[in-house]
Amino acid sequence: MQIDLLVFPRWLVPVEPAGVVLEEHALAIDAGRIVAVLPADEARRSFEARETLTLADHAVMPGLVNAHAHSAMTLMRGIADDLPLMDWLQNHIWPTEGAHMSRQFCEDGLRLAAAEMIRGGTTCVNDMYFFPDASAAVADSVGLRAAIGMVVLDFPSAWAQNSDEYIHKGLEVHDSFKGNPLLRAVFAPHAPYTVSDAPLRTVRKYANELGIGIHMHVHETAFEVASAVEANGKRPWQRLKELDLLGPDFIAVHMTQLNDEEIAEAAQFGVSIAHCPESNLKLASGFCPVDKLLKAGVNVAIGTDGAASNNDLDLFGELRTGALLAKGVSGDPLALSAPQALHMATLAGAKALGWEQEFGSLAKGKSADFIAVNLDRAGTQPVYNVLSHLVYAANRDQVTDVYVAGRALMRDGLLLTVDEKAAVQKAREWQQRIKK
Ligand SMILES: CSC[C@H]1O[C@@H](n2cnc3c(O)ncnc32)[C@H](O)[C@@H]1O
Ligand SMILES: [Zn+2]
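Structure tokens for the assembled complex are given below, as produced in the milestone run.
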């Protein structure tokens, strides 16, 4: 049988079943889909491929899913550090966004982010930012899979004047890429402290009618929870529950402040959590109780947040930090094992987006979203355990090949869909404008 591509890696990490590593196996790909995962000799006998990729020193695994990012914030990387969330947002980030936000900012920021994300093995991003039309256009042009946040706020920005306009412009964006298999719209009400009840009800109504997910910062800091209790007499989680927001289509980002009852409810409602360990550490926001959440059966995915709070979009870094942090927070070295961490960065992200039938693991019928990591480096030898290396030892510079739906976005370290030099030049120009 003739197919497009046969991949022969040294190690094949399908992610599901958890903990499995296949050797002497191949990935057979045709028309953007995995048509078989099979022993290498059988692959050679069964298929004639237009292209063969032999990755003798590499682990091939599903592409990484960034479950929470503000991609275009790459243009504000390093603009304000070593601050708590509200000081960082109110006195630095929001004034800069207020002064410079435009469609061009978002396009240039996202293109820079795309170069960084693809280089680091990210194949899907759940994005929340202004000008989602620009994010969709850039994601489409570089071939990244993306969930595009239809941002909702009570306050005006260069993108929309009020919550009604945010919602309706978001819905127009949603309509504009219907039928594009790599793009999906997700409502993105920013946070409980920036979106009032009425727009949240409207979001829930449209989400139900159109089958769209909802992605929101929730319980990021103790200050957020305490000020909500002072203002409304209830915790934000309780308010969102009363507004009927919590459900399997809801992605709660951060969740560093959770009591045992809320953890049980997250499982009961089927809510997914986007854990952002490095952003939470840098802003000293608190610790998401990942171990307790996983034990309660909650789907926990992993995200970077924006590059202005992280300060990168490196999911390999996030994987390692997340795994170490879970152990430190729980006091249990068994917490968030390497296979669990890899699941979190792949299939759990796809599940959070309601897209797990399509990608997140390497299995017959799924979209060919995969990456190759070269382990033939001093820092990842010898290889007793590939899964251990992918979480605890490898870094993003070891990613050599990145494919989304069978299309190569990076081959042997060469970006194929983003002009990185041009993106970097634009970033320099924005720096001049912003820091005048
Ligand atoms: C309305 S687009 C997204 C909005 O969120 C801001 N933002 C970036 N990082 C965080 C964070 O960790 N918590 C809350 N808000 C954040 C970003 O600057 C945009 O204004
Ligand atoms: Zn965020």
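The CA atoms of residues 58 and 375 lie 6 Å apart. The longest strand covers residues 48-62. Further analysis is deferred to the final report.
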